Predict the 3D structure of the following.
Amino acid sequence: MTRMKTNPGRMGARQIYEALRDQILARVYGIDGLLPSSRALAGEMGVARSTVTVAYEQLAAEGFIETRHGARPRVARAVVERGRMRAAPRPLARKPRLSQFGERLHQDPPRWIEPSRGLVANFRYGELSPSDFPVLAWKKAVTAAMTRKPERLAYDDPCGALRLRTALQGHLWRSRGVRCEVEQIVVVNGSQQGLDICARLLLDAGDRFVMEDPGYQMARHTFAATGAETVPIPVDADGLETARLDGVEARLAYVTPSHQYPLGGVMPIGRRHDLLAWARKVDAYVIEDDYDSEYRYDTKPIPPLHALEGSENVIYLGTVSKTLSPTLRIGYLVVPAALRSLFAAAKQIMDRHTPLIEQDALAAMLESGAYDSHVRRVRRRNAVRQQALLNALRRRLGDRVRVEGTAAGLHVVAWFDGLPPRREDALIKAARAKGVGIYPVSALLVGARRAQKAVGLVMGYSALEVAQIERGCKLLAQTVAELD
């Protein structure tokens, strides 16, 4: 419903009109969304329905909304898309007083990039194809969860529904060799909330944390917002260069050993043991982000850090964002037993618990085998997509491109050794002009600590069909040729 700034009891038609106009221009209702009915809005605002009707008539007269008898008003798409009319300028607000956390976040905020529309091929990582989602299986599980009558409607265990945690315990043992107690599993709203809880509980201002360089920037932003200092450690073909940890004092390390993001290396067993030995020596926690371990193509699975001997300091982080959908916001942590109650308390004060309907539905899919069946199906589909990408890059670009990180995951890294880093922006802009979205490795580096000698692209393929991949690579090859 509409939120007005002034006292609702004193609002007139003009005030309601201005508030709705500003919200329409700010896309509160989208580019063609529905507004409340005049009756509903009048009831919410505590004014006569005729007052709202006058406001709506003025909005319609100026072209902001479209009205039809018996239907709710709808935003006029043309007004919002073309920006033909603007709200009156507002006075500048005073600088807000923020906490130290707020100031740090203000100085170094993460970037949200709005999904591009209308591209021939968008090689953005982290997106999935809607055609891959198991609509029927998920609908069946959600419907069953919604029709199951609970004893009462009440808050649940902040660690997550017992049914889901029990199902996850079995799944992790079968698929990843992770052995844990149900009590060690904490269900969270995606991996991002898991990282946030770890940051709040394990880091203070002035502490240090180890990050892969290049690495996952959302993790770095989350940890840095606490006031802790980043210690970037370079990555090679085998993941984090653990030899560089000698002499490093830190409270925690964040790693993606099963498929390093973004370069794609799989950390060998020797380095895994070295990392665990370092963590024990300096009394640090290791956050193991197993974000897309379900997708292995030409490599045998290596046991996760959590499954190795001496892993008492490991916090295992998993998610269904790369198997089902990032829109579901379901992830899970496997925490050391000594931290279980603390993580439960942190989750409780954040949001009580993750929504129960989705938890119940996921549990049902895990129990029935529908989830494992779905993963096998999308693994085959993404193997086909990856091979199509590799073939197209090889055919269109030949020795002008060098591809890494093909053993697992939902993306590869394409290095253009003939293009120096200074040509990166030109390549991205020229490709976008042709309808191809490409994303550089350089955006994932920590500052200028690591010299990059060529343009590198992180190329995701899991949201594309084979025809789009072929067309996108053709246009990318044309762009590269024009820049040579």
Observations:
- Residues 370-397 form the longest helix (28 residues).
- The radius of gyration is 26 Å.
